[in-house]
Amino acid sequence: MTQSPEFEPQIVAFCCLHCAYAAADLAGGSRCGYPSSIKIVAVPCTGRVDSVHLVKTLEDGADGVMVAGCLPGRCHFQTGNLHAKQRVDHVRELLEEIGLEPERVRMVNVSAGMGVQFAENAKDMSETIAALGPNPLRVPKSQASTTDAALEGTN
Amino acid sequence: MIVAERKPLDDIIEMLGGQGKVLAVGCGTCVAVCFAGGKKEVEMLASSLRMSTNLKGNKLEVDETSVQRQCEAEYLEVLDERVKDYDAIVSLGCGVGVQYLAERFPEKRIIPALDTKFMGGPTEAGVWEERCQGCGSCVLGITGGVCPISRCAKQLMNGPCGGSKHGHCEIDEDVPCAWQKIWESMEKLGRLDELMQVSAPKDWSTSRDGGPRRVVRDDIRTPKTEDS
To answer: How high is the ipTM of this complex?
Structure first.
């Protein structure tokens, strides 16, 4: 996709309050920067994140969605993070059906002490989305390749 | 419950023609319980349809609503005014719901978004299995509560057949042999001797072989008055 160098992805990260949200906090506190394109939404558990949330976030114009939950086996609610992974996988399949890149949605797992890893995940996600380009649903198809106009319309 | 599954998105879009104004209607009964056509699934489908058609450069406007039950005319009354604004209705009901919508709104195109699969229930979260074929003449009383009509691939009344192996059916090793289950159930009930009786061929006239079926209850019907 054609894009201008100014394109900065808008990524919504649903972060579990018990792990990833604390990890993001730790990353910040440790002066371990991560891209400002990551917009964090705290959730009590990634098991609360429904497929509808992921799809609607993309429909509403986000370039990518990251779900960040506890390490497998460490969920405070036993299996919330595993359910979240299943939903992410389901939505990735649905995105293929829809015609949007499944890479725009991703699940990552970190503990509250993994601030550096959170920052790395955030950076990697941001780079992936930057390579994919803007979400074409943000603007009419005819303007999708003119990124400046696209960003202007949503920011 | 009636178990259903969403059709491929492209099939639904093809039926819709890809543009216009569409109302997606969910059903809050069976298909909601099997996660195929409840409110959440309506939201997912509507979003998916909007996104997919948008990406293809078409303009499909999709609104969402859900009724408690599509298969009773009274529950569709709330849609009477609303449907006037739409070119087509996408039903996330079972085949019955789709037809009730089509009967109530004959001037509208009704598109089925689901494939109705069977009458059954969940065996674990995310897995549904068939339990009844609506044969119209229930034999569960003589088969230990296990249905040979819906659960035996051959619908045998005197099983098991030679295809039963280690408790499973020859069609698929994940499918339990219904007659093995019948045997086990009858054994627990101390009624194995009854299985020695040969069952007569089943009367299929109560099933689909007798054509579309109808149940009439005169004690429930609306009383006829002089005006009617």
So the answer is: 0.87
Per-residue pLDDT tens digits for B65-75: 999 999 999 99
The CATH classification of domain A11-154, taken from the options 2.30.29, 3.30.700, 3.30.530, 3.40.50: 3.40.50
Looking at the structure of chain B, the number of domains it has is 2
- Identify which of A51, A52, A99 has the shortest CB distance to residue B52: A99
Distance from CA of A136 to the nearest CA of B (A): 7
**Residue A55, Cβ density class (10 Å: 0-12 exposed, 13-18 middle, ≥19 buried):** buried
Asked whether residue B112 falls in the same domain as residue B144, the answer is: no
Radius of gyration of chain B (CA): 22
Q: Is A93 on the interface with B (CB under 8 A)?
A: no
Give the tens place of pLDDT for each residue, B114-129. Answer: 999 999 999 999 999 9
- For the entire predicted model, the pTM comes to 0.89
Minimal Cα–Cα distance from A65 to chain B, Å?
Answer: 16
Question: Is residue B215 in a domain?
Answer: no
For residue B31, with 0-12 CB atoms within 10 Å meaning exposed, 13-18 middle and 19 or more buried, which class applies? Answer: buried
Q: Looking at chain B, which residue has its C-alpha nearest residue A57?
A: B47
CB contact under 8 Å between A52 and B44, yes or no, is: yes
pLDDT band at A37 (very low <50, low <70, confident <90, very high): very high
Distances (CA, A) of B140 to B134, B151, B157, B180: 12, 12, 11, 15
One domain for residues B93 and B198: no
Tell me whether residues B44 and A94 touch, CB distance under 8 A.
yes
* CB–CB contact A51 B44 (8 Å): yes
Which range of residues forms the domain containing residue B104? Answer: 2-117
Look at B47 and A59 and tell me if their CB atoms are within 8 Å: yes
